[in-house]
UniProtKB/TrEMBL annotation:
It comes from Flexivirga alba. CDD domains: Sigma70_r4. This is Sigma-70 family RNA polymerase sigma factor. Signal peptide: none annotated. Keywords: DNA-binding, Sigma factor, Transcription, Transcription regulation.
Length: 169
C-alpha cells in the first residue's frame, strides 16, 4: 500500500484522463467510466502500484488499463448488468403502496367511533363534508356557538383517542 499522497496524486494526474477515455470507449457510459477509474485507482493504491514501481515486464499504465478492462468485463458479466435495462425515459409515476392508507383510515374510523354522537357528527361534517360552521348549525338545528364548542371538544377527544391508539404528533 502506497502511503505517500504525492505519489498517488501524480499517478492519478498521469493516467486518469487516458484511463477514463479508455473506459468510455469500452462502455459508452461516461458515469460508469468514472466509476471504473475510481475503482482502478483504489486498487492501485491498495496494491502499491506507482510509476516508480515499474518492473521490466509491465508498467503502471499497463496495469491500470488491464484492471480497468477487467472491471468492465466483470460488470458486463454480472447478473445486475444482464437484468438492468438502461432507458432515457422514466416510467410513469409509480403507484404507491396503499397499505398504510388503509391502516390509517381504519384507525381514524375506530377513533371517531370513540367520540360521542354529537361530537362525531360535527367533526365528520366539518372535515369530511367540508361544511362551514354556519352550514352545520343550519343542518342540525343548533346555534353556531354550539357547533364551535362541539368541534373544539370533539377534536380534543379525537386527539386523545388517536394517542391511545399509538398515534403521536
Amino acid at each position: 500500500m502506497v502511503t505517500d499522497p504525492d505519489v498517488l496524486d501524480q499517478l492519478h494526474r498521469d493516467h486518469a484522463n487516458a484511463l477514463w477515455a479508455y473506459a468510455v470507449r469500452l462502455t459508452g457510459d461516461r458515469a460508469f467510466a468514472q466509476d471504473v477509474v475510481q475503482e482502478t485507482m483504489l486498487r492501485a493504491w491498495r496494491e502499491g502500484i506507482t510509476d516508480e514501481t515499474e518492473t521490466s515486464a509491465t508498467s503502471a499504465r499497463a496495469w491500470l488499463f488491464t484492471v480497468a478492462r477487467r472491471l468492465v468485463i466483470d460488470e458486463s458479466r454480472s447478473a445486475r448488468h444482464r437484468r438492468e435495462v438502461a432507458t432515457e425515459v422514466l416510467p410513469e409515476e409509480r403507484a404507491g403502496d396503499q397499505v398504510d392508507a388503509v391502516f390509517d383510515t381504519a384507525m381514524i374510523v375506530d377513533a371517531l367511533a370513540a367520540l360521542s354522537v354529537q361530537h362525531r357528527e360535527v367533526v365528520v361534517r366539518a372535515y369530511y363534508g367540508r361544511a362551514t360552521v354556519a352550514e352545520i348549525a343550519d343542518d342540525i338545528g343548533v346555534p353556531p356557538g354550539t357547533v364551535k364548542s362541539r368541534m373544539h371538544y370533539g377534536m380534543r377527544a379525537l386527539r386523545l383517542a388517536l394517542q391511545e391508539r399509538g398515534v403521536t404528533r
